[in-house]
Amino acid sequence: MKKRTEIINGSDILSVTNRKLCREKFLDRIEKIAEAHPAGIILREKDLSEEEYRNLAEQVLKICRKQETRCILHSFFDTALKLECDAIHLPLSILMNMDPEKRKQFRIMGASCHSGEDAVLAEKMGCTYITVGHIFETDCKKGLPGRGLEFLEQVCQKVSVPVYAIGGITGTAMEKIRRTGAAGACVMSGLMTCEDPKEYLEGFKE
């Protein structure tokens, strides 16, 4: 049985942002993705300072709340708390150094994992879901082979929280991904660049 989590919004696809891939204004793209109702939007703009990120996050949160789509902020947990956002996604290194009392303030907390050991540690530290990758070859990790479906299945068996595959995910691969026990998958470039996010997400449905 697939593990489910609160971030599900009629979809098992998490949108991961990268504004540099957009061919239009970033907030216009966010509006379109939010209207398409993925499981959530992870605002992952790693090149921004915390102040710059906060300014962007305020606008993205406003859009997501209007569309009733879950927005998950990334890395800057103090900013998330100030903006009254109860969902955060963290690199494992940040999660490990985070005050346990602050961890408890998030209803949804995810971590980026790259091994079964990472996944077990993230779960112990209170994560409500994890992402695991990269599963298939992707332009984001040029020259590095994907870890594959067997790796994904092994990670899913080690934890009880929902696992989302990341890295080179396409609609045609989703049936195989679901068979591993994963709760869903993360998509970045496809949703940042496609003509119609709603139609694009339809291609991932069971």
Q: Care to describe what's here?
A:
The protein is an alpha/beta fold and 206 residues long. It has a single domain (13-202), classed as Aldolase class I (TIM Barrel, Alpha-Beta Barrel). The protein is 39% helix and 17% strand. It contains 10 helices and 8 strands. It has helices at residues 26-36, 50-67, 77-82, 92-96, 100-103, 116-124, 148-158, 174-179, 189-193, 197-202; strands spanning 13-16, 40-43, 71-74, 87-91, 108-113, 129-133, 163-166, 184-187. An 8-stranded parallel β-barrel has the order 1-2-3-4-5-6-7-8. Helix 8 links the parallel strand 7 and strand 8 (184-187). Helix 1 (26-36) runs parallel beside helix 2. The longest helix has 18 residues, at 50-67. The two termini are 14 Å apart.
Task: Summarize the main sheet.
Answer: 8 strands, parallel, barrel
Percent in helix: 25-40%
The CATH architecture can be named as Alpha-Beta Barrel
CATH domain fold name: TIM Barrel
Please state the overall shape, judged from the principal axes of the Cα atoms: globular
Q: What share of the residues does DSSP label as strand, in percent? A: 15-25%
Quote the distance from N terminus to C terminus. Answer: 14 Å
Draw up the topology in text.
Blueprint: E1 13-16, H1 26-36, E2 40-43, H2 50-67, E3 71-74, H3 77-82, E4 87-91, H4 92-96, H5 100-103, E5 108-113, H6 116-124, E6 129-133, H7 148-158, E7 163-166, H8 174-179, E8 184-187, H9 189-193, H10 197-202
Parallel strand pairs: 1-2, 1-8, 2-3, 3-4, 4-5, 5-6, 6-7, 7-8
